Amino acid sequence: MKTRIITAVLMVALAIIILIFSYIPLVMNGVVAFIIAGGVFELFRSTGAVKNKWIRICIIVPLAASAFVQIPYFEYVLII
After folding, report:
1. Among residues 7, 59, 65, 66, which one has the fewest Cβ atoms lying within 10 Å of its Cβ?
2. What is the residue-wise DSSP string for 14-74?
3. Sign of torsion, CA 65 70 75 76?
4. Average pLDDT over residues 1-16
């Protein structure tokens, strides 16, 4: 129980810091890249689909880097 409370306090503090600096695009892109990398890593770990460490890295890094790619006319891409 104590571990969960400490984790929750740290996550709330981290969320507040991210919200304070959310007007800086590089910060938000970094947060999104971190979330993408974590999600893909957990997906690979839970399914056991890719067991080779280097193949996982070669997949996770470009996916996380996609958070920094500027898409022209992204409003239309979202609509489609």
Report:
1. 7
2. HHHHHHHTTTSHHHHHHHHHHHHHHHHHHHHHHH-----HHHHHHHHHHHHHGGGPPPTTH
3. negative
4. 88
Q: Which of 58, 56, 5, 63 is nearest to 35 (CA)?
A: 63
C-alpha to C-alpha distance for 5 and 54, rounded to whole angstroms: 35
Model confidence band, residue 28 (pLDDT cutoffs 50, 70, 90): confident
pLDDT in tens, 58-72: 988 998 988 888 878
Q: How far apart are CA 35 and CA 40, in angstroms?
A: 9
